[in-house]
Amino acid sequence: MQSKKKSEQTGITALYCRLSRDDGGDGDSNSIVNQRKMLTKYAKENGFSNTRFYVDDGITSTRFDRPGFQAMLDDIEMGYVFTVIVKDLSRLGRDYVTVGQYTDIYFPDHNVRFIAINDLVDSDEGENEIAPFKSVMNEMYARDISRKVRSAHRIRGTSGEPLSQPPYGYMKSPENKKKWIIDPEAAEVVKDIFKMTLEGKGAETIARILQEKKVLVPMAYWQSKGLPRGGKKTQPNPYKWCKTTVSKILAQQEYCGDIINFKTCSKSFKNKTRYANPEDKWAIFKNVHEPIIDREVFEQVQKLIGKTRRRNPKPENWERNMFCDLLYCADCGRKLWFNIKHDKEDIPFFMCGNYHGNRGTCSSTHYLRADAIEQVVMLELRRLSKCLCDDEESFAMLLADKTNADILKEKKHIESELQKCIVRSEQVAELCIKCYEDNVSGKLSDEMFMRFSGKYETERLELKEKISAYRKRLSEVDEMQLGKEKFIAAVRKFMQMDKLTAPLLRELIDRIDVYEVTGTGKNRKQMIKIHYKFVGYLELPSLARQHNYREETRKGVAVEYVPNAQSA
């Protein structure tokens, strides 16, 4: 029977069901339908009310990032769930270490009662000495199943059966799922890509042409045809091809009619990440299906790709620039990309990654030479250091006035919004419970219950994300209040160094906004705005603005730095 403590609470009783391919040999006993029946019967007979099912169908037992399982954890984190019931421990998972962490640590820490019916596990009845051995046996079962699956996979792969989904341009035969046939519509696009490459067009140019012609990208095309594929499902622009997709198509030998198995592998049955296999471990079967591209054409394209591949830049230019991930476009908010041109490898530069010339939406490149931004930041930090040296007390007061005013305003706003979200989250939880009770009593039809519960579930998840984000930002704001001394210490560290380093740069600066160039020739100006760690954008007093600076960059380009405008 349910304990008095729990029966007096109105929290959710989570009924968790899971079925995967691993359970195929267990017959019908583990089917989702039968698990639902068993859990419903147990909950009813033992007085558990306000039940809610969380289901994962077709997901392996060694993974714990399952949608249903994660939804249940989300509700536990929000304080909605008081009891979790499963058919047996294997439904929770077959990784004994992770299962033990949930049953022995996570559930008790969140005051959640855990019941595994067939294994006679009930956390309210105290520890079950058999449970750890059950979990070990479940993992051994998963390991054995994985070994058998790998063996069968190896046999199929070495016999010439395709182990992967057909590439763009092919589809599975309706008569024989193990055979690929040409998808006429997509195959024409593949042929066009190879043809344009032979004509001398590069991958970026081809991607641009396909986008202009409004050709659906592979994922969007498969979705339009109702074909299941893994990968990113959302397509902000279903016609925006990228050069990597084009390059991948050009490199696929399968278009010659071949099957290539074992291109990738996994390192463990617990780790589902796929890693590239060396080519000597591939299994290649030629002329298995109808080719889209002649083998001679394919070889010609591979030679062209090899000749036109980007030359390796000089080692000193290939190193990751210290300003990467710090520069942002002041107009569109996107990061600036680090670039090196073939004909000017000694002049690395940054430009907006969202520039419309690269098929983005930003109207300007926001071009900025890497050596120029380095010089400007050095000059600004020297000016900052001079302020600190000349009058440390005034500098500290400047930081205090800046941070206290900004932080107090932001903190009040965040606290207000956070409280609103918490109150509404509690209201949504009560509405969910009321909906369920009305449905059980017959006051609310199943159709309306599904409609309302779906609406409230969506709102609950949105509120959860907002609450988490607000709490994180509050923590950051509190840290900012304590960050003034850290900032001064970082400035002092800079004063002791001969040159700017990446670690110190990230210790001092949060981000740099780069504006578009105005004017031409001698009147050319470009404003930047430096946002420092802990203090944000800092207006230095007029005392430090007495002079403009002019210095030569390493490549002989003069930079005139006007402090009051922060221009490069």
Structure explained in plain terms:
With 568 residues, the protein is α+β, with helices and mostly antiparallel strands. The protein has helices at 4-7, 32-45, 67-77, 89-92, 96-109, 131-158, 184-198, 203-212, 218-224, 243-250, 295-308, 315-318, 370-390, 392-441, 446-481, 484-495, 502-508, and strands at residues 12-19, 51-57, 81-86, 113-116, 121-122, 170-172, 180-182, 259-261, 264-265, 275-276, 283-285, 327-329, 336-341, 344-352, 368-369, 509-514, 528-532, 536-537, 549-552, 558-561. The chain is built from 17 helices and 20 strands. The chain has a 5-stranded mixed beta sheet with strand order 2-1-3-4-5, with helices on both faces. Strands 12-16-17-18 form a 4-stranded mixed beta sheet. Helix 13 packs across helix 14, helix 13 packs across helix 16 and helix 14 runs antiparallel to helix 15. It is flat, with a radius of gyration of 31 Å.
Number of strands: 20
Helix content: 40-55%
- Number of distinct helices: 17
Low-pLDDT stretches are 1-9, 24-28, 309-318
Overall SS class = alpha+beta
The rounded distance between the terminal residues' Cα atoms is: 75 Å
**Main sheet?**
5 strands, mixed
Q: Please, what is the average pLDDT?
A: 77
Kindly estimate the percentage of residues that lie in beta strands according to DSSP.
5-15%
Shape: flat
> Oligomeric status of the shown chains?
single chain
- The neighbouring-strand order within the major sheet is 2-1-3-4-5
Number of domains: 4
Over all CA atoms, what is the radius of gyration?
A: 31 Å
